[in-house]
Specification:
single chain, alpha/beta, Rossmann fold, Helicase, Ruva Protein, domain 3, 3 domains, 5-stranded parallel sheet, 18 strands, 40% helix, 14% strand
């Protein structure tokens, strides 16, 4: 993906102790219209930084009088706005990770590809969100003020709004998303199933300077092992049986944007080694190809598994874990943010009703209390399934606990919703056995809804309008459920 040149010249500081390389970097950037200053040591760089501000700092890792990381840390402590790009030795993954954790925007590996150098500078400039009138005064080197953080772009604001919750922990996560979005550092999102890890990954993308590029989401556990290399890196015609034409892989498809590797813990060990090499060198070789191709992607990965424990058990490569876990975002389970339950219920109901054309019902306080007492091990995904079932079973304009199809628990006493209070002479009720926990909650809920709809249809001689009225639905809602659940009506190709 071609990178567009910045609208204004940038003021860049290059720090390298090798005169030939320093000159090469200077000439390359001068041809792009930038103003370039150069230093051969930490002391020279500090002197230049004390006298003026820069847009971008490009520094070698090892210098005669110390490490380039020292400059990064000093700039961070002084709250300076320069975007830092570090040049590391070939294959030095540890140095690259350390640089990113120290606040570097990006890193380049020796020998430096000049196209990557130009692209990294452009991306560093594009990532600087600043308010009008703030920041350095341009390439003339005059003293400026530090950049002020501006809000994310409109798409980023919308993506953050889709992460529902105003609890303290969710506020911290949203603030961290905004912060990490302005770098190229890999992000590892950890959290239980159903906590919304893909929503967070999309927010990182939409808040970044790569928002105009593609967001490619990959479920690492859903790809057959014999096809995984071709899926990730692409394949040339004839590379395997059935490869009738060249095809691009996920890395090529995500060029200029973000590659989201969901369930990264399910990736086979053999593929982990290949993925590590691509992340470090930013080049892929398609299956059956001879030449390597440069790739320009930011990696965001996610898992519900304990990767550190998998590393200890030999199930996940330590070097890949170290490389992916540069910035960690841990998403809390719903039980850890109960105060967000009400807004989540309203948001999910609004979306479910908009999809089905149903009028949005109110949620009774008793229903919210019932949900608050529920364990919700499936987190937001389970909450959505419960609401979907309640919408299907509800016959009024308000959701009640009995609409969720389970006994209501009040004051430690469990009663069926339609059970009348026992009189003095009534024999004690025999408690019904608790239902087994299903292995697949969504399939279980779909089957319950399917049986309810079939019963109503049969009792109404498969008249959809009458069955819809019986269930408190309109005809559009009824058709939607029949189609979604695959219910065959008389006259269809197959019998029910």
């Amino acid at each position: 993906m071609a990178v567009t040149a910045p609208a204004r010249p940038a003021n860049i500081l290059v720090v390298d102790d090798e005169p030939d390389l320093r000159t090469l970097y200077e000439l390359t950037l001068l041809r792009e219209g930038h103003s370039v200053s150069a230093a051969g040591s930490l002391s020279e760089a500090r002197d230049l930084l004390s006298r003026q501000r820069f847009d971008v700092l490009i520094s070698d890792m090892r210098l005669p009088d110390g490490l380039g990381l020292e400059l990064l840390r000093e700039l961070a402590q002084a709250q300076r706005a320069e975007k830092c790009i570090v040049i590391t030795a070939y294959g030095s993954a540890e140095n690259a990770v350390e640089a990113l954790k120290s606040g570097a925007f990006d890193y380049l590996t020796k020998p430096v590809d000049l196209r990557q150098l130009r692209a990294a500078v452009v991306e560093a400039l594009q990532s600087q969100r600043q308010l009008p009138g703030s920041g350095p005064e341009g390439a003339n080197g005059r003293q400026g003020t530090s950049l002020q953080a501006a809000p994310p772009p409109p798409g980023g604001i919308q993506a953050l709004a889709r992460i529902v919750g105003s609890s303290t922990v969710m506020g911290q996560i949203k603030a961290r998303i905004e912060k990490v979005a302005t770098s190229m550092a890999p992000v590892l999102i950890q959290g239980e199933s159903g906590t919304g890890k893909e929503l967070v990954a999309r927010a990182v993308h939409e808040c970044s300077h790569r928002a105009a590029g593609p967001f490619v989401a990959v479920n690492c556990g859903a790809i057959p092992e014999n096809l995984i290399e071709a899926e990730f890196f692409g394949a040339r015609k004839g590379a395997y049986t059935g490869a009738s034409h060249d095809r691009e892989g996920y890395f090529q498809a995500a060029s200029g944007g973000t590659l989201f590797l969901d369930e990264i813990g399910d990736l086979p060990l053999a593929m982990q080694a290949k993925l590590l090499r691509v992340i470090q060198e930013r080049r892929v070789r398609p299956l059956g190809g001879v030449q390597e191709e440069s790739v320009d992607v930011r990696i965001v990965s996610a898992t519900h598994r304990d990767l550190a424990a998998m590393v200890r058990n030999g199930e996940f490569r330590q070097d890949l874990y170290y490389r992916l876990n540069v910035i960690e975002l841990r998403i809390p389970a719903l039980r850890e943010r109960r105060e967000d339950l009400g807004p989540l219920v309203q948001s999910l109901l609004q979306r479910l009703c908009a999809e089905s054309g149903q009028v949005m019902p109110e949620v009774s306080p008793e229903s919210l209390q019932w949900l608050a007492q529920h364990d919700l091990p499936g987190n937001v995904r389970e909450l959505e399934n419960l609401l979907q079932r309640a919408l299907a079973l509800s016959s009024g304009d308000q959701l009640m606990p009995e609409d969720f199809g389970e006994p209501l628990k009040l004051s430690g006493v469990e009663t069926a919703p339609d059970q009348a209070p026992a009189g003095p002479a009534t024999a004690p009720a025999v408690a019904a056995p608790a239902p087994d926990i299903p292995n697949d909650l969504q399939q279980f809920l779909d089957e319950q809804e399917r049986q309810v709809l079939l019963k109503a249809l049969r009792e109404c001689d498969f008249n959809r309008t009458a069955a819809a009225q019986r269930l408190g639905l309109n005809l559009r809602q009824m058709r939607y459920r029949i189609q979604r659940l695959g219910i065959m009506m008389p006259g269809d190709d197959d019998a029910i």
